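[audit] Reproducing an earlier prediction to check determinism. Same input, same settings, fresh worker. If the tokens differ from the archived copy the diff job will pick it up downstream; this log only records the rerun itself.
[audit] input (242 residues):
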Amino acid sequence: MVELKHVDAGYPGAVVLRDVSFTVAAGEVFALLGGSGCGKSTIMKHMIGLNPVLAGSLLVDGLEWCSANRAALCRKIGVMYQSGALFGSMTCLENVMLPLEEYTSMKWRARRRKALELLADVELVDAARKMPSQISGGMKKRVAIARAMALDPEVMFLDEPSAGLDPVTSASLDNLILRLRKERGTTFVVVTHELPSIFKIADRCAMFDKARGGMIALGDPKSLRDTSSDPFVRAFFNRGEK
């Protein structure tokens, strides 16, 4: 579903990661891991088409951002930003309806009906008429996931979905991701550093290291925890253990 081939990631004049190659299979939950500033969010910005790669190629469902119809590619993906990025002047329902208004010819009633169904999927129908300022951080992220699902994307990109949340709320978000993957067959790419979430939801992961400027591990997180020969990788997955 997603393929990176010898990608240099970063910004003009500033390469953050070099020669990154990996694939994300359809229906997989794939995590991007590493310490602060290692480049995992930079890689995600390339994957969602915000920034062009500096070298190499990046394909989503066989299409390259640099050459494909961007509107067609945008409809294949959904994005949840770390803060939720909801529009504060719109209700939760209006936030979820917005992509349907911008990218489809659906009538208002049909848009509203689908948005309510999406809020029901994330168990937030009761928040439909509330403003983002009236709901909790975890609820904002659920609304953002509902909005990201509005166009029935094939790939969902989630940036730090558990950041700043209490353990119970974080676990409920993990369960939501797994349920959506099971019910919809959606592929997920998740930036996170939360170990409980990593071990619970991720089929595979890619780990990056700022000092080495590249990808240093790829595979099942439990296997990397138990068998990696890299001290940094072992320390990452075993932090907090006595």
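[audit] rerun output stored. Observation attached for the diff report: The chain has two domains: 2-76+154-237, 91-152.
[audit] end
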